[in-house]
Amino acid sequence: MGTIYGRKSRIRVSLPIFCGFLVSLLLASRVPAAQAGQLDTSFVEASAPLGADTFNITLTGSSSGSGTFSTDATCTLCTPGSGLLSLTVNIGLDSGTDAFDISDDALGSLTLYQRPTNTLAYQGTNSETNDFLDMELNIWFLTRAGSMIGSGTYSVTAAAVPEPSDLFPLIPMVALVGLRLRRQHRVRT
Q1: With pLDDT > 70 as the criterion, what percentage of the chain qualifies?
Q2: Checking DSSP bridges between strand 65-71 and strand 83-91, what pairing results, if any?
Q3: What pLDDT, on the 0 to 100 scale, is given for residue 50?
């Protein structure tokens, strides 16, 4: 075996750090930076999906609200049962456990997310409150017992996900911690 100052030990110490550096450079060159305010789908289309996409919904107008939905990251026209995995909208009294969702509410004829245009359409009757929410073309209407009780506009934005470039500095640190633990283990034995 090598000593701390021997050739094998230097290779064992520098090789993981060098490999971590090469991996970080490779990943940094493959991941394009998203422009502010735009959904960058070029990386998703060019590689295998890693998991679901999550989006935030912001409702403004006579009432304000928020929501989230997720897709399987591969669908172009996402519908419940075909790429649209979850959708929840909280607005006014229709919040919390009484929120609009696609799991138990009666859906209208239109519940669809179009990835190329970043457009969400939703129609549903809340199973808890019997209110009806209609969201189309970035305009929403909320009705109760046939009377409109709220309206306004909504927007859809991709949820914040840490950029891989933010995680690259951790690679050499993890390698150093691993080497330190290995050295401590060898000293004990």
Answers
A1: 68
A2: antiparallel
A3: 46
